[in-house]
Amino acid sequence: MLKNLIIIGIIMTTTSIKSAEVNIKRWNPEGLDQPVGYSQVVTIEGQGKLILLGGKAGLRPDGFIPETLEAQSKLTWENIELALNAAGATRKDVIEIQIYIVDLDKVNPEQVYQDVRDFFPTGHKPVSMVIGVSALAIPELKMEINVRAIVNN
Question: How many whole angstroms separate alpha carbon 131 and alpha carbon 96?
Fold first, then answer.
């Protein structure tokens, strides 16, 4: 019974999303740190299509994985761009990223951070977090990124 209620709720939410515009506001409120590469707050008003990209990584379709964190970061952002475009979104539509880096305390993540700054256009910085993990599902991966975007229907 509970499972059916959850599915009904999702269907109702999905159905109601199709009729209005979305206003996305990204900013760093006064009194908080004013970061360069991301926004402290993103609000979404209205309705639209929510796009979730889970576990994007530096993995080619043929299974090739670059050896370095830097090379994986570049390929990860290329894969994110492809996935966003396939879903009808662009970099400007991204509202949140979660970056998982293996052994964060033992690597220099500066290139990953620079790739984040380079990926997003001026004024379109998502909220973000970086999480250090001991491993990912594919042992050769050094990082993965979850992405959330929203577009007007």
Answer: 14
